[in-house]
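User: Predict the complex with magnesium ion.
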Amino acid sequence: MNHATLFRASAALFPPPHSTSSTRTNVTDNIAIDGRNVNFSITTRQGKVVPILRDCSLRIPSGQFWMLLGPNGCGKSTLLKILAGVLSPTNGTVYVKRPKSFVFQNPDHQVVMPTVEADVAFGLGKFNLTCGEVRSRVSKALDAVGMSDYLQRSVQTLSGGQKQRVAIAGALAEACKVLLLDELTTFLDENDQIGVIKAVRNSLDSSEEVTALWVTHRLEELEYADGAVYMENGEVVMQGDAASILDFIRVRQSAYIKQINS
Ligand SMILES: Nc1ncnc2c1ncn2[C@@H]1O[C@H](COP(=O)(O)OP(=O)(O)OP(=O)(O)O)[C@@H](O)[C@H]1O
Ligand SMILES: [Mg+2]
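Assistant: Here is the predicted structure with magnesium ion placed in the model:
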């Protein structure tokens, strides 16, 4: 069993020690993720403080599929880890609905049990469910990600994208309300990429309860999103509906190209 699976299985049980809380009263039910003025710095061995995130604020409505975009090194993964509770912000406040699940970039870090069925059922041990209830949850979750036909398959025989979908099914089976997904399509071929993104879209469409925040740098993936947050240099530059963010990034890219050419 590896670290990734341990985290996936235990995230709902052990709340992180920082300010993330599902009992905050000033956040309405229709907001799944609310970060306010989140700062994160690291201190080097020489004692120098290096800011990674600066005053990042974002609000993601419940039941929606949002993307977190921005150039390499702008702080997307760091912000996602703070939302997941893996890192604590230096200051600022973070609210994320629970239970939540963090799915990693590398598909081989996601699945550990011998079969698809066992892997999706893996996190359900803590819920004290009957065998029938476990089977029903596993079956519904695999259906949502389009993997029902793979119930008895050995996980070793799955493609990268299929492994990611099984990991997402594991989170859905645990009734996770928020999925935090970091560049899941990086290692995948085009077919697998589309399969994973459609699986997330379908999971949200089949349950009003689930919200997803998907980190990517692929602009074409925006067509599946309800909204997006755009970051640069450790700051949230803009957030809004997917079409507006796409326009904003294209204008920014062409201004950048003009600047280089001149
Ligand atoms: N523990 C750390 N020590 C030093 N620098 C760090 C640490 N963690 C992150 N950084 C730096 O913070 C910045 C943001 O990193 P992060 O991984 O969040 O970016 P990202 O937007 O996810 O990038 P990518 O698109 O390449 O995945 C980078 O410059 C990175 O080198
Ligand atoms: Mg990253």
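Residues 42, 52, 70, 72-78, 217 surround adenosine-5'-triphosphate (ligand 1) (CB under 6 Å).
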